[in-house]
Specification:
This protein has five helices and nine strands. Helix 1 runs parallel beside helix 3. By secondary structure, it is α/β, with parallel strands linked by helices. It has a nine-stranded mixed beta sheet, sandwiched between helices. It has a single domain, classed as Dihydrofolate Reductase, subunit A.
Length: about 240
């Protein structure tokens, strides 16, 4: 199905993986998170009614009716451009049972990338990987991720994996945070950022809106936010 191209874009320079250099001047791996969320921040069960019913979630499949050509092309580009993938356990199991079970992954750009490139899972409980090409990261995950970033190049893509994303942010391991926000309120389910978690200042690098109102935003983490230390005089706010 084709959609009219009505996207609006704010395009600022984006750092490429080749531009990310270590102290020796050689390219390092760029860790990018990409998360599909609703306006109220829900990321659970976006792809289907039975994708993830944990916690009694009954509103799965909310993203698919809103998916448009621009968003599909963007996701194909992001996944297709990744050198490797990093998952939390729950997202890994969902992806392995869907993308990893396709009879012919070559028919889909996302499936082709996921099935042909290295996959890493940060888990203390996963004993055996069910998807070929998977390495389980046990023990000091921060050191393992840091080693990947220091000794490889390209993009290490983190799809979904909310708990892992928050942990990576808290440990200053995220280079780029991508949010694909769908224009609906789901009203229940697991959120990317729950009531308590790390606080991070973000720089907006790129933003656009698709024909169906999906916003695609790229942020660069800047460390801890600044907080006002005294009351603001609203009379002087313009």
């Amino acid at each position: 199905m084709a959609f009219a191209n009505r996207s609006r874009a704010l395009r600022l320079p984006v750092e490429s993986s080749a531009d990310k250099l270590n102290e020796e001047g050689t390219a390092t791996m760029k860790l990018t998170t990409t998360t599909n969320v609703s306006v109220d921040g829900v990321m659970q069960g976006l792809g289907g009614a039975d994708e993830d019913r944990s916690g009694g979630f009954e509103r799965g499949g909310w993203a698919i009716p809103l998916l448009d050509t621009e968003t599909g092309d963007y996701l194909n580009q992001i996944y297709g451009g990744a050198a490797a993938f990093l998952f939390g356990r729950r997202t890994y199991e969902i992806f392995a049972g869907s993308w990893g079970a396709m009879a012919d992954p070559s028919t889909n750009p996302i499936a082709a990338a996921l099935n042909s490139r290295p996959k890493y899972v940060a888990s203390t409980s996963l004993a055996h990987a069910q998807w070929a090409g998977t390495t389980i990261l046990h023990g000091d995950v921060a050191a393992a991720v840091g080693d990947l970033k220091a000794n490889q190049d390209g993009t290490l893509l983190v799809p979904g994996s909310g708990a892992l994303v928050r942990w990576l942010l808290a440990n200053d391991l995220v280079d780029q945070l991508d949010l694909i926000t769908y224009p609906l309120v789901v009203g229940q389910g697991t959120r990317l950022f729950p009531d308590s978690g790390p606080d991070v200042a973000l720089e907006l690098v790129n933003s656009r809106t698709t024909s169906r109102g999906i916003t695609i935003q790229t942020y660069r983490p800047l460390g801890r936010p600044e907080y006002a230390t005294s009351p603001v005089d609203l009379a002087h706010v313009t």
